[in-house]
Design a protein that fits this description.
The protein has 107 residues and is mostly helical. It is built from 4 helices and 2 strands, in the order ααββαα. It has a two-stranded antiparallel ribbon. β1 and β2 form a beta hairpin.
């Protein structure tokens, strides 16, 4: 699940709601990830945002993000110093399901 950078003090004091959206858009531009590939994100120190072709898909994505966050919290409770997944493994998991040569999972 992509995570945004924290908003600056100026962004919080300014047009907070619009700036929250801007950090989401900015995050996708930096990582080269398209919003259709990961239709949800965690906004640092805020919470999940999700979208999709309809409200049902957005709610499904929001529930998935919450489950992933819960699993991550349990992992850190068991092994506090657990390092994040390696970039290569993360890319492999993503690409085999969603990349141009996808071969894993449902069509």
């Amino acid at each position: 699940v992509p995570v945004t950078r924290p908003l600056s003090a100026e962004e919080i004091e300014g047009d907070y709601e619009s700036n929250t959206g801007r950090v989401i858009v900015e995050m996708y531009g930096v990582d080269g990830l398209h919003p259709d590939q990961a239709p949800g994100a965690l906004v640092a120190s805020h919470g999940p945002f999700a979208w999709g072709p309809d409200a049902s898909a957005a709610v499904e994505m929001a529930a998935a993000i919450e489950l992933i966050a819960e699993l991550a919290a349990h992992t850190l409770a068991i092994e506090r110093d657990r390092p994040p997944i390696e970039d290569e493994l993360l890319e492999r998991h993503f690409s085999r399901k969603h990349g141009p040569m996808a071969y894993y999972g449902q069509p």
